[in-house]
Amino acid sequence: MTAETQIDSYLTALRLHLGPLTIAEREEIVREIDAHVRDSAEESGASVESVLARLGSAEELAAQYRDGLLIRKASRSFSPLLLLRAALRLATKSIFGIFVFFCGVFGYSFGAGFVIVALAKTIVPSHTGAWVQDGQVVSAGAFIYGVSPMAHEVLGLWIIPLGLIAGSFTLLLTTFLIRTSMQVSQRLQSRL
Amino acid sequence: MAIQRAQPNQSEQPDRWEAQLRKGALEMAALASLWQGRLYGLEIIRFLENHSQLALAEGTIYPILNRLKTEGLLTSEWVEAEAGHPRKYYSLTDAGRLRLRQMAEAWTSFSGGLSRLLEPVFAMKENHQ
């Protein structure tokens, strides 16, 4: 391969792996790396091959740009999907990330659970509620088959606002926790 | 030395720790290289090589510069050069200068404190020898 085709194939691979960025961002990066390779080879008299080797593979280089972008976006986002995706990415890098990811999954499931129970009360009111028997809560939530006839339901329609409040609170808290973790990890760039 | 040879596995850990330490300092080092004026990527890499022992994988610096720019600590401009292609020059913004000053202060007090903490370790080493 000539030097030109080596540079071209590296930049093509880089462009490919930078996929999620905007075209303008992507072309600017490619242009800068192109200039780097040419300057570096010319200045040191090293072969294009060794200059490219020092840069690392196009895939690794692109991943560093993409990680930065994903985490930056996530630290300002409210989307559970984006936040969990960024947390998962962080989880491949550090124990802290794994912890954040599992807290995220747990928090979102719990929050969604509360909201679903509140909504279920409007659809299947007789199967949704909190049941008490002999002074102890025996079951709470929405049930397909209903609960023991010995227990009596105590919350009534109150379960709707309670579920919605507890659900939104849990969802917001989870969002806030993941976003804060993203901001912390941005500071601790050594982990990424 | 005898202790190190007895536990060869442990020697890999400090290497990884050192690599993380270097990488963590890179952001500050990149900002510091621009203190006296604008530079393009390769010049920043050469500057860091010449002024510190920060031998780095060249690919790591460009994503860091990109991030510092989106954080508003750097600006960049394309400048035509004799080489036949333009080069992307970076310079510090006011926010970047401020941030670097804060980092430099934090770094100095942090490393000063740690050095004092480590004094006994160095003293111990001499005692053992």
What does this structure look like?
The complex is a heterodimer of chains A (192) and B (129). Chain A is mainly alpha-helical. Chain A has 7 helices and 3 strands. In chain A, a hairpin with a 2-residue loop joins strand 1 and strand 2 (136-142). Chain A is rod-shaped and about 85 Å long. The two termini of chain A are 33 Å apart. Chain B is mostly helical. Chain B has one domain: Arc Repressor Mutant, subunit A, CATH 1.10.10.10. Chain B has a 3-stranded antiparallel beta sheet. Mean pLDDT of chain B is 82; it is low at 1-10. The interface between A and B is medium-sized, with 26 and 23 residues.
Short précis:
The complex is a heterodimer of chains A (192) and B (129). Chain A has 192 residues and is mainly α. Chain A is built from seven helices and three strands; from the N terminus they run H-H-H-H-H-H-E-E-E-H.
Q: Low-confidence spans of chain B: pLDDT under 50, at least 5 residues?
A: 1-10
Number of helices, where a helix is a run of at least 4 consecutive DSSP H or I residues of chain B: 5
Number of helices of chain A: 7
> Based on CA inertia axes, which overall geometry of chain B fits?
elongated
The CATH superfamily label of chain B reads Winged helix-like DNA-binding domain superfamily/Winged helix DNA-binding domain
Q: Major beta sheet of chain B, specifics? A: 3 strands, antiparallel
Name the strands of the widest sheet of chain B in spatial order: 1-3-2
Strand order of the largest sheet of chain A: 2-1-3
Overall number of strands of chain B: 3
SS content category of chain B? mainly alpha
Order of helices and strands of chain A: HHHHHHEEEH
**Terminal residue distance of chain A:** 33 Å
Quaternary state, please?
Answer: heterodimer
| Most extensive protein-chain contact, per-chain counts | A-B, 26 and 23 residues
What is the global morphology of chain A?
A: rod-shaped
| Helical coverage of chain A, percent range | 55-70%
The structure class of chain A reads mainly alpha
